[in-house]
């Protein structure tokens, strides 16, 4: 595959930070982090960074999730995401 990237964003169908936190807490393979160049799968909530440097009216949607897909088995990663989505 050429020209592809393992970095993507999506929005959960909720703006409730507590529900979004349940999603992240349910993940077992994706680790919370912002380093997009490594081999491990990572998840990040942009609202976390915004909370510390911007007024609330400038925060992104709390449901915005960014993930970096690492080198783990694809089926394991899909299962991990499915489990987290079911936790919502």
Fraction in beta strands? 15-25%
Helix coverage percent: 25-40%
CATH topology: Aspartate Aminotransferase, domain 1
Stretches where pLDDT is under 50 for at least 5 consecutive residues are: none
Number of strands: 4
Report on the biggest sheet: 4 strands, mixed
- Overall number of domains: 1
From the 3D coordinates, which CATH architecture would you assign?
A: Alpha-Beta Complex
CATH superfamily: Aspartate Aminotransferase, domain 1
Average pLDDT reading: 89
Element pattern in H and E: EHEEHEH
| Oligomer designation | single chain
Largest sheet, spatial ordering of strands: 1-4-3-2
Q: Could you say which overall geometry the principal axes of the C-alpha atoms support?
A: globular
| Cα end-to-end separation | 33 Å
InterPro entries: Cys/Met-Metab_PyrdxlP-dep_enz (IPR000277), Cys_b_lyase_bac (IPR006233), PyrdxlP-dep_Trfase (IPR015424), PyrdxlP-dep_Trfase_small (IPR015422)
Pfam families: Cys_Met_Meta_PP
GO molecular function, one term: pyridoxal phosphate binding
Keywords: Lyase, Pyridoxal phosphate
Write up what this structure looks like:
33% of the residues lie in helices and 17% in strands. It has 88 residues and is an alpha+beta fold. The chain has one domain (9-86): Aspartate Aminotransferase, domain 1. Strands 1-4-3-2 form a 4-stranded mixed sheet. Helix 1 (17-26) runs antiparallel to helix 3 (74-86). The radius of gyration is 13 Å and the shape is globular. This is Cystathionine beta-lyase. Belongs to the trans-sulfuration enzymes family.
Entry summary:
This protein is of the alpha+beta class and 88 residues long. It has 3 helices and 4 strands.
């Amino acid at each position: 595959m050429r020209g592809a990237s393992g970095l993507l964003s999506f929005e959960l169908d909720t703006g409730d930070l507590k529900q979004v936190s349940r999603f992240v807490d349910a993940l077992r393979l994706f680790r919370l982090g912002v380093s997009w160049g490594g081999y491990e799968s990572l998840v990040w909530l942009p609202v976390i960074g915004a909370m510390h440097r911007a007024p609330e009216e400038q925060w992104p949607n709390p449901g915005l999730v960014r993930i970096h897909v690492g080198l783990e088995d694809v089926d394991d990663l899909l299962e991990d995401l499915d489990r987290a989505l079911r936790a919502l």
